[in-house]
Inverse folding.
């Protein structure tokens, strides 16, 4: 994923996680918020940041859509971007769940800003993201290849399904938080005992 899209999409995903987990929470909201924050942080750290960070490390010029020389992004800004990618889903989740009675319209407004900005940046950079080369090659118009069949293309074919499956699994787990496992001290079989 391009570096400039990662934090925006991660934040919007965090808000979506909050909507799914707390939206129909019949359980204690504090427990759902705590577990949801941990789950969204784990998603950001284990799935989202590696998928975004790979391209910052191995295709830095592509990760900034050749707008500037990506080699400058590697140190120290590359680490900053990866940390932003890792923390964005949890930050989105926590901001979306900070209000005890957040309405769906609030969650939509919270996620729509970053999502629309990411969409605008993607549309603006779409043609540049379809090529593989260095900053100098793209701006000098020589030695540029289509992404398909290149190492970058193979990485995209691998990372996209991993990211999609990880996101779907996290959404499933978040949904189960609102209905999920019993709270400590309560029993599912004998609710009258709790």
């Amino acid at each position: 994923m391009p570096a400039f899209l990662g934090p925006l999409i991660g934040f919007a995903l965090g808000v979506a996680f909050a909507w799914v987990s707390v939206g129909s929470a019949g359980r204690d909201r504090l427990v759902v918020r705590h577990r949801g924050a941990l789950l969204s942080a784990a998603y950001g750290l284990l799935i989202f940041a590696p998928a975004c960070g790979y391209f910052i490390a191995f295709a830095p010029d592509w990760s900034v859509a050749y707008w500037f020389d990506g080699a400058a992004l590697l140190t120290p800004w590359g680490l900053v971007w990866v940390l932003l990618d890792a923390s964005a889903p949890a930050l989105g989740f926590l901001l979306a769940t900070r209000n005890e009675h957040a309405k769906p319209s609030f969650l939509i407004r919270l996620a729509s800003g970053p999502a629309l900005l990411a969409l605008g940046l993607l549309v603006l950079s779409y043609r540049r993201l379809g090529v593989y080369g260095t900053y100098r090659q793209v701006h000098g118009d020589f030695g540029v290849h289509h992404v398909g069949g290149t190492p970058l293309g193979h990485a995209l074919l691998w990372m996209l399904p991993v990211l999609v499956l990880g996101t779907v699994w996290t959404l499933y787990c978040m949904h189960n938080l609102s209905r999920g496992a019993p709270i400590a001290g309560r029993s599912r079989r004998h609710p009258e005992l709790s």
In short: Residues 29-58 form the longest helix (30 residues).
